Structure formats: C-alpha cells, structure tokens
Protein: TetR/AcrR family transcriptional regulator
Organism: Streptomyces koyangensis
Amino acid sequence: MPGASETKGASARSTRADAVRNRQVLLDAAAEVFVASGVDAPIREIAARAGVGTGTVYRHFPTRADLVVAVYRHQVEACAEAGPALLADSASPFAALRAWTGLFVDFLVTKHGLAHAMRADSGGFEALHAYFLDRLVPVCAQLLDAAAEAGETEPGTQAYELMRGIGNLCAGYDDDPRYDPRRLVGLLLQGLRRPG
C-alpha cells in the first residue's frame, strides 16, 4: 500500500504534467492566433483558442514579450524535432524536405512581429536568433544531405542559404494578403530537384 509521501509525489508529478500540457496548449493556440492575426492579437483571442481564461495566459506568460518568446522557442523546437521524424516517415527525403520547409514557413510567418514585440531587448533578440540557427541549420542540412544522397537533388546546397532564401520569400507576407510565400517556396524547392 503506497505511503502518504508516495501519493503526494505522484500527485505533484501529475500536477507538473498537467501544467506542462496546459503550457503546450497555450503555446500552440498562441502560434495559431499569431499566424492569423499577428503578435499583437488580443490575449482573450489566444485564451479562447486554448479553451482557458485570460488569467491562465497571464499566469504562464506575464507579458506579451514573454509569450512571443515562448512561442518562438516552442516553434523552433517543434521544427527541429520534426526534421528527423519526417525523414523517417516520408516517402522520400525530398518529400521530407518539402514537408519540413512547410513547417519552417509557418514558423517564419508566426515570428513576423517578434522584433517589434522585443524592441526593448535587442540582446534577447540576438540570443534567440543564435538559438534558431543552432537548432535549425543542422536539421535542414540533414534533410538536404539525405535528398542529395538519394539522388533527388543536386548536392551542394547549403542549409543556411536555403533557409535565408525561404526567409526572404516570407518577408512580404504581412504587407500583402495576395502574396503567398508557400507557392514561391514550392518553386524554389522544385529548382533544387535533380532532372529526371
């Protein structure tokens, strides 16, 4: 029969697991709202998407900048973890690369406005950018190498260059709703394909 300390420990672990899940739900909801409405979207919209009260959002993220940074980090991690999973589960390395770049575009669209939200903390923004490169460049390189080794793409494309090019294609998204960066990124990827 479990003692009181074992029961208390199990309850604390359950509470921590619930808090982690709630945080993940909030981050996913905030990312969706940021894509649809920008980083200045009302907190009540994020809370409604997550199915919680606004107080819950503020309890986890006291300021908007805290929330934006957390969403940024959450999406970097999701994008980094998706690369190997897509490579293992996709029909081909190029299919994995295409799926991953779709996630990367979603991430880039979400992060527009980050600099504005963090304007008072340029050091924090630089640290986040370094974190972004450290986590995602190796994942993109792994996907590019696998596609080249499979003979699906020409070798020699550098991950940083591809990611920077995709970032440049995403830059005009906020200014013109008629502009679809995903279509142009698709064309860019087709340009990497080896003929035949």
User: Anything to note?
Assistant: Residues 60 and 66 are 9 Å apart (CA to CA). The mean pLDDT is 85.
